[in-house]
Amino acid sequence: MSELSAAQLAQYIDHTVLKTDASPADITAAIAEARELGTYAVCFSPNMLPVDAQLGDLNLAAVVGFPSGKHLSSIKASEAAAAVAAGANEIDMVIDIGALIAGDVESVENDIRAVRDAIPGALLKVIIESAALNDEQIEQACRASMAADADYVKTSTGFHPAGGASAHAVRLMRSVVGDALGVKASGGIRTWDQAIEMIDAGASRLGVSGTRSVLGRELVGAQSSSY
Predict the structure, then answer these.
(1) Is 92 a residue of the active site?
(2) Does residue 1 sit within a domain?
(3) In which compartments does the protein localize (predicted)?
(4) How confident is the model at residue 136 (pLDDT cuts 50, 70, 90)?
């Protein structure tokens, strides 16, 4: 198991607020918390952009086609472009999982490519909803993401009834993409041990909403040792 400090683990985390009743005040509070905890990025719904609070060193991610992926590619591309214009430098897009399951891998690749072409200067993460797929479909989704020049593959939205991230899915995704793409584990990561498990499986980024809780064990230790 990897030995990381809280500060090191925080640098894997996209501190995420995607709840449907999120308010501007929630976004401002999330940015302040992310800056305090030292996370790598924050991740919000695109209609919450631009943000009023100062981001400091934080990267700003927005989701696209979220959470169903059942949007026209042109809509996803426009949504992504609008989010980047409003300040996002990372986009987390959802594929059409149903198309993938039906075997239409070409349309999935084209969908990703449409978003990629719309945001040439931004980092693109592709959410494949791994818990809803079998291993072959996960591999197909990863290869389609690579072919469409994505930067990351990501396990989950956290909204699908099939579940969120698993170490098995992360390990499989990493085995397919190698060092060519990053792997983001997201959905259901609520403890320090779960976060470390995902990193040990190959995750290079984590999507977490309860970041303070995940880092809490080490934060308490750090605070205690400082007195």
Answers:
(1) yes
(2) no
(3) Cytoplasm
(4) very high
